[in-house]
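Record format v2
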Amino acid sequence: MVTGILTDQPMELTVKEKCMEKGDHKDCLGVIMPVRDALDVINGKWKLPIIIAISRGHKRFRDIERNIPKITSKVLSKELKDLEAHKLVKRSVFDSQPVTVEYTLTPYAATLNPVIDALFAWGTQHRKTIFGSAEVAEMPVMQE
Amino acid sequence: MVTGILTDQPMELTVKEKCMEKGDHKDCLGVIMPVRDALDVINGKWKLPIIIAISRGHKRFRDIERNIPKITSKVLSKELKDLEAHKLVKRSVFDSQPVTVEYTLTPYAATLNPVIDALFAWGTQHRKTIFGSAEVAEMPVMQE
DNA sequence: GTTAGCAGTTACCAAAAGGATAGTGCTATA
DNA sequence: TATAGCACTATCCTTTTGGTAACTGCTAAC
């Protein structure tokens, strides 16, 4: 039977299994390194929130900025450049009057879907674990 | 039909659906915030690698240190304290000669399994996307 | 009796990330 | 004519993160 990486509960196709297939039964650096590759790309407080905001139809700079609590222009500008460099976001300039800029997700960004879903699920239950689920009213609000 | 958060491809039970259920059709801060809650806990280069190393049977301080490339005593020490504070790792001191210290995962850490699996899967394919899959030989090695 | 390992800590320092505030040139609206 | 919005950039500053090196007290092995 195949088991998960952190528990011995049965799973369908797991990290541990893939690791075993590579023949590395001891250290399994092969698990740590791909995880770190992923972390290198989505690292920091802002990249995933930005991707989520764009995915929800906020294409314009100020529109994205308004929809991510506490972010500043400077940080958003820098993170968008990073995301562009990683081919997750596309920046398009339209020669209208005045010029408009649109940020959209590349098809590659869609491959992050399972990661975001897993983090959303874990974050949701973690919040319930920390405060009781009743205290949703304490959630920070967007525009103060 | 229900669709994923980044694409319009069908999914079974998705972030978007949960979001819609909450009645937030516009901004869906409800997606960004749980993701940020999760990121606050697992953020940084080291926390997930440490959890993975412990999960693979490396319980002792030096043992963990040896199995995570480039980590230093100082950083490991600090990150272990953080993980303990977040109830993901348990530190046990045994009164042997000499005293031994063991780090183990709590049951709560096991709930991170889907997150780690998703990051592992994405990191693996991302690496293939960046270099060709043939260049596995270029992977950094553990002890130089 | 010297070396090596264990489980860290301390001090110092550099780099990266993030926050606050202001300002740019442009245009559309009141 | 003044205000506001857009898409940023610039400057300054603080906090966080990470890296180097040395050092602690202890014990076991050579």
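Chain B has two domains: 1-42, 44-138.
Helices of chain B lie at 15-21, 29-42, 47-55, 61-66, 73-85, 113-130.
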